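User: Fold this one for me? It's Integral membrane protein.
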Amino acid sequence: MAGKLEKVALKPVNIALGFAAGTLAGVLFKQAWKVVSGDDDAPDAGDEDRGWGEILAAAAIQGAIFAVVKAAVHRGGAISTRKLTGHWPD
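Assistant: Here's what I get for Integral membrane protein.
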């Protein structure tokens, strides 16, 4: 029963961490895109003034940053859960 209660109690924390991770990843992507391209705005797939290469490069960089931030937050949350509860989360 304690395991179920812990999952319910940690759900809002996980949601907040996910939101924070998405926000952080967005900020990091904007900074990375400025460094890579020198442009303040990343291209959108529907932007007809941008080429395929630029759009796909931006998508690849954004995807990589989001994946790394998500993995780091997930791993940090699991380690914190173990420290708080004494066992690794499911």
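One thing worth pointing out: The radius of gyration is 18 Å.
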